[in-house]
Amino acid sequence: MTEFIRSTTELLQCRPKGVQEKRLKESCQDFEAVLVGFLFKTMRQSIMRSDEPDGGMEVYESMVDEAVAREMSRQEQIGLSRLLYESLNAGITGPKSGE
Length: 99
What we know:
The chain is mainly α. It has one domain (about 15-95). The chain is about 75% helix and about 0% strand. The chain is built from four helices and no strands. The chain has helices at about 1-15, 15-45, 55-75, 80-95. α2 packs antiparallel against α3 and α2 (about 15-45) runs antiparallel to α4. The longest helix is centred in the first third of the chain and has 29 residues, at about 15-45. The chain is elongated and about 55 Å long.
């Protein structure tokens, strides 16, 4: 296991810093979007609905929820992706001076 961690760390250090930070930021935003999408899905499940067929409305709602969650994450409206990015980036690059 430590060999895997060591080789992964060496691989990360070989990448250009800008590319590494961009991928990390995108991954953090994707994680936040998945989490927010799950929250939307859970909130929708709490709504009382009739037993009538809805003609695909659930599929449409899930697509809208996913798009809204992704856009919220990209615009950093919640801030989870930014906090996660800062925490993980500090672990890769080391602490900022003054911390």
